[in-house]
Amino acid sequence: MTGIGFDTIKRVTADLYDRSLRFIPADSKVALRKADGIETNETARHTLRTMIRSADAAEQSWRFVCSDSGVPVYVIKVGTQVRFSGNVRQAIVEGFADLVASIQPPLLPHVTNPLTLERGHSGRHMPIVTFDMVDDCDFIDITCSPKALGSGRWSAMEIFSFPDLPTIEAYVLDVVRKAGSQPCPPVVVGVGIGGTFDYACKLAKEATLRPIGQPHPEAMVAAMEERLLAAVNRTGFGPMGTGGDSTATAVHVDYAAGHGFTPVAVTFNCWINRRTRARLYNDGRVEIIE
């Protein structure tokens, strides 16, 4: 067996980014419809219904849900039994370059050099990719979750010393209040607690990828998610800042053991909640998960 090939990785990663721009995940649609059913603000209900119609129209016409396509971000889980027959990182870079040259409508030049502010479609470490190893698996699991301005700008992290749960929850709400309607609610809020500063941010990002409606497996953390979701929706920002009860569709929390210093990271996915996912197997199969 030759293993997972360069051309397959190139094609699949480009396709995941393309598809992520043109529809919202099924769980996000369900969450928006659920929010519409319990929302008490008439303007907010109208906004939620407009969002659902816009998402349906984009999917049916194969156009972008939002003009801010963000930048491609991939989270890749690599099975320890996987075999590669080409360079993985280079395949992702070339796939993105090919997509830029062919996609319709064209991608706006959102890739920005942070030192010169020069904008284009390529740059250092672009696309943004993180890799993790997974024991006893013969596939790679690739999630594409592009990050755009609204949801990317308002992420935050602070390091505390031996904080209690009320302190952590108060910080999460402080970040949400400062963000206001800028992340394009109703949002998914990801919270990462513990580890080191970089690992807490990783946990927060990956928490946003958890399907809406799937609580954390530990009861204490699941209860924390429920409290935070209720508190976030009491802020009253509502969908796209129109007011109402639907500021978030989910708050997802994860944590890691660490030292006495405790980083707390908070990040957002906008109402589109861009997320596509596929698995590539040693035997050549490609399984579309989302």
Keywords summarizing the entry:
five-stranded mixed beta sheet; alpha+beta; 11 strands; single chain; 2 domains; four-stranded mixed beta sheet; 290 residues
Secondary-structure-based class equals alpha+beta
What is the C-alpha radius of gyration, as a whole number of Å? 19 Å
**Main beta-sheet annotation:** 5 strands, mixed
Helix content: 25-40%
Structurally, the number of domains stands at: 2
The coarse overall form would be: globular
Overall average residue pLDDT: 96
Distance between the termini: 27 Å
Tally of individual helices: 8
Beta strand count: 11
- Strand order of the main beta sheet, please? 4-1-5-10-11
Brief rundown of the structure:
This protein has helices at residues 6-20, 26-38, 42-61, 88-102, 149-152, 165-179, 197-207, 219-233; strands at residues 73-79, 111-112, 119-120, 128-134, 139-144, 156-161, 187-194, 248-256, 261-269, 276-281, 286-288. It has 290 residues and is α+β, with helices and mostly antiparallel strands.
Written overview of the protein:
This protein has 8 helices and 11 strands. The chain has 2 domains: 6-22 and 64-148 and 274-288; 149-269. 37% of the residues lie in helices and 22% in strands. Helix 6 (165-179) runs parallel beside helix 8 (219-233). The chain has a 5-stranded mixed β-sheet, covered by helices on one side. The radius of gyration is 19 Å and the shape is globular. The protein has helices at residues 6-20, 26-38, 42-61, 88-102, 149-152, 165-179, 197-207, 219-233, and strands at 73-79, 111-112, 119-120, 128-134, 139-144, 156-161, 187-194, 248-256, 261-269, 276-281, 286-288. The protein is an alpha+beta fold and 290 residues long.
